[in-house]
Design a protein that fits this description.
binds nickel (II) ion, 3 strands
């Protein structure tokens, strides 16, 4: 079930059979000349919502703004600084925990979020450690491309030109879900350059059209559909395993 399309009574009833919640998390940031600004939050949302059709899971609203300061020189990007992002993640977790959820599973769509999400988890655990008690809930971070079988499939689909930002795999996922929003462009060069990530001005000077190492022209809705099906099935298994984890007494 989708939390935002449910009532509090339905959520309360769900908590009677499961204490696990899935939270898609991503970023709203430029994705090259053809990638949708929402790509990094749309991908985990698309996968979680597809999984929800085939399993008894609850999916929270998508946390759709993340750590994207390096993309700010491209219009449409909205970023939280890491310190703000950590505070916001903390209050999302506290709210869900207050409701009774004990396993908080974040399905992430943006590599730049990873360090900050993990740091937010550490802050939450530290609260309990300093107070000398158990946290009462466990957090897990999973990047959608790390779900079982997904990277292997993407490597077969895109043996050359996958890259690390505005990748054909993530753009294919959005093309499958939003075919009416597919964009085209002439890429020059066909495969974008690679390099380090620093501040926004440096980023735009290194990566003129916003891509990093990728050829998004390889994306197709069909390939996106294959990725979504593989990821959604793996997500259900991974969420079930996380929910079944038991802590020592
Ligand atoms: Ni992305």
């Amino acid at each position: 079930m989708l939390l935002h399309l449910s009532t509090w009574a339905e959520v309360e009833a769900f908590l009677g059979r499961s204490k696990t919640v899935v939270i898609p998390i991503g970023s709203n940031e430029q994705h090259g000349p053809t990638g949708l600004l929402g790509t990094d939050w749309l991908c985990p949302e698309i996968i979680a919502h597809e999984a929800e059709k085939n399993g008894d899971i609850i999916v929270a609203p998508t946390f759709n703004i993340g750590m994207a300061q390096h993309h700010l020189d491209f219009p449409g990007t909205i970023a939280l600084r890491p310190s703000t992002f950590m505070l916001a993640i903390g209050d999302w977790c506290r709210s869900l925990s207050h409701a009774g959820f004990e396993k908080l599973y974040f399905l992430n769509g943006h590599g730049g979020n990873v360090a900050t999400i993990e740091a937010a988890f550490s802050e939450l655990y530290a609260e309990a450690s300093y107070a000398g008690r158990k946290r009462g809930f466990a957090c897990k971070l999973k990047n959608w491309w790390d779900l079982a079988g997904v990277t292997a499939l993407a490597n077969r689909q895109f043996p050359v030109g996958h890259g690390s930002h505005a990748t054909p795999s993530e753009i294919a996922v959005t093309q499958w879900a939003y075919p009416e929003s597919i964009k085209t462009a002439n890429y020059a060069p066909q495969i974008a350059p690679t390099g380090p990530i620093r501040e926004a001005t440096d980023f735009r000077s290194r990566f003129a059209d916003g891509r990093m190492g990728s050829d998004p022209g390889l994306a197709t809705p069909e390939k996106g559909g294959e990725l979504v099906k593989t990821a959604a099935a793996a997500l259900l298994q991974d969420v079930a395993a996380f929910g079944a984890e038991t802590a020592p007494a």
